[in-house]
Amino acid sequence: MIKIGVFKFTSCDGCQISFFDIYETISNLEEKISIRYFIEGQDKNVFEDFDISFIEGSISTPEEEEKVKEIRNISKYVITIGACSSSGGIQSVRNFLDYKQIAHSVYPEPELIKSLEKSRPVSDYIDVDIEIRGCPIEKESILEVIYSVMLGKKPYNPEYPVCMECKRKGNPCVVIFGKPCLGSITSAGCKAICPSYNRGCYGCFGPVKNPQIEAVEEIFLHLGLDKEEFKECLLMGFNAYHPYLREKL
């Protein structure tokens, strides 16, 4: 029996909702799969040893920091789901600004807010076995991980850029038409949905390993954007604080 836990930290709940999309499939495998902890989706929850723990959300409070370490200690596999848990999420925009200034501009009594100065990905605190990218994730990615654990094999998790998906679909490069695109430094998995509809990739699946920022910046400058506009395009995304990217910003 594969015991599963689904946990939420600082996030919008969007990635957890993907589990409702696979409810019928999991129900048909109830003799092999048991979701033991999922506050969003069930009344009875047991916090115990898990074969797979799926984690949504960034770590933004001291309580979350302690909780995620507890989850790691009782889990065989820890899987982050979505941009918040893998990269810090859109809330990590504050990491590049003055935290105290932001807190005072939002809350009348910021001293009452128990928050960490930065919104960080889960991997900053514990070892993560697999990152499922996206904002939100796709249900097929969840099933791929569950089936792989059941079969004792390594899950399929693309490590190449979106450009490869565009090539496979026969999409003409949108940059040719003067549209900024982050596809060359963004992990595949979205099936190149944005370029397929004639718009540039904006990086919702997060960066590939060792993203070639300088090369993409050169293309953006050629299209008429200045360096500050290019940097803002990266910083204001969902994945600006991913370890692969923040070291280069």
Description of the molecule:
By secondary structure, the protein is α/β, with parallel strands linked by helices. It folds into 2 domains: 2-151, 3-Layer(aba) Sandwich (Rossmann fold), CATH 3.40.50.700; 162-246, no CATH class. The protein is built from 11 helices and 5 strands, in the order βααββαβααβαααααα. The protein has helices at 18-21, 23-27, 62-73, 83-87, 99-106, 139-151, 162-169, 193-196, 213-222, 227-235, 243-246, and strands at residues 2-8, 33-38, 50-56, 75-81, 130-132. The chain has a 5-stranded parallel β-sheet with strand order 2-1-3-4-5, sandwiched between helices. The radius of gyration is 19 Å and the shape is globular. It starts with a strand and ends with a helix.
Q: Secondary-structure map with pairings?
A:
Layout: E1 2-8, H1 18-21, H2 23-27, E2 33-38, E3 50-56, H3 62-73, E4 75-81, H4 83-87, H5 99-106, E5 130-132, H6 139-151, H7 162-169, H8 193-196, H9 213-222, H10 227-235, H11 243-246
Parallel strand pairs: 1-2, 1-3, 3-4, 4-5
